[in-house]
Amino acid sequence: MQTVSSDHESNTTSIGVIKLRVGVPKKDGFAQFVKVVWNSRENKYNNVSGYCMDIFNAVVKNLTFKVSLQIEPYVNESKHSAGTYDSLVRQVPVKYDVVVGDISIVADRSQFVDFTLPYTESGVRMLVPIQHGRHQTMWIFVKPFSWQLWLSILIINMLIGSVILIMERNVHTLPDDRQEERSSFKKQLSAMTILWFPISQAVLPERQVVAKNCSRFVLMVWLLLAFVLMQSYTANLTSILTLDKMQPSFFSVNDLRKGDHYVGYQAGSFVYDLLVKQFKFSPLKLKAYSNISSYNHALKLGSQRGGVTAIFDEVPYLNVFLRRFRSNYIIAGPTYRTDGFGF
């Protein structure tokens, strides 16, 4: 967007064109949102671009009246940023008529200015390094199935065992065997027999232990189910034992706070107040960074070597970071909702 020079005495020209003084932030990183280019030859800023400016330009083009824009980057005499986003917002309406950029809508800023509707979905989340490894324990053999499925298998196993033994109770028909059959049937209905019978048939199906056709049908259904379960169990266990599982090195804010870790945030962002006031981090444990390269460097070092263990930032910035460093980092924990970016 090219800057338009004009005086500040009136917001409306003689031909009915509304003039707006537009303030934009000057930042070192995340040029995808706002990028301010300084022309050293002409000694002025002659181009402001980025996602936020594209959205603003599209809005201006669809207005029913003409607007003349005067773009003024928020910089000091040394051409660096003149302050935080909070101080930039407070320049309205004294220095600017509107502020355009990756300005988050938060309650404290709403006390000084009116925001438009948000044009991005936002939220604050935690970025941590990916932890590689399988962390196998002696209970690894139960992990292929959930505890609900293990419980269901046990119940079905006992049910099938009970049904088959009940259906087979009158197989012997000789009168002399009736008394002996009653006593043996009571023994058969013990919990151990009911539990072990279907398992033994799944392991040794060649044994002929049932005589009735209905019992054979129930047993065939059980053997088919057992075959499917064994194939699924084998595949899942093989995957657990062989594949490198990626998971976050930390899962929650409490883990970081209890471990006395350093955490990072974007310089000038409202996230600092969120970390101190809501998450109860000590200000001494917070470090500010300005771009994705410094994020990556700090996370690689870790807290013990002068870096940080995690980065807290808004989701749009973290998505930009992950487009470049996705293989080494992951977003973890819940989303702490914010209202997004607005003008």
UniProtKB/TrEMBL annotation:
GO molecular function per UniProt: ligand-gated monoatomic ion channel activity
InterPro entries: Glu/Gly-bd, Ionotropic_Glu_rcpt, Iontro_rcpt_C
Transmembrane regions listed in the UniProt entry: 147-167, 217-243
Keywords: Glycoprotein, Ion channel, Ion transport, Ligand-gated ion channel, Membrane, Receptor, Transmembrane, Transmembrane helix, Transport
Gene3D superfamilies the record matches: 1.10.287.70, Periplasmic binding protein-like II
Coiled coil: none
Species assigned in the record: Trifolium pratense
Domain of life of the organism encoding this protein: Eukaryota
Name this polypeptide is given: Glutamate receptor-like protein
Residues in Ionotropic glutamate receptor C-terminal domain copies: 19-343
Topological type in the membrane: Multi-pass membrane protein
SUPFAM superfamilies: Periplasmic binding protein-like II (SSF53850)
Compartments (UniProt record): Membrane
Principal location class: membrane
A cellular component annotation (GO) from this entry: membrane
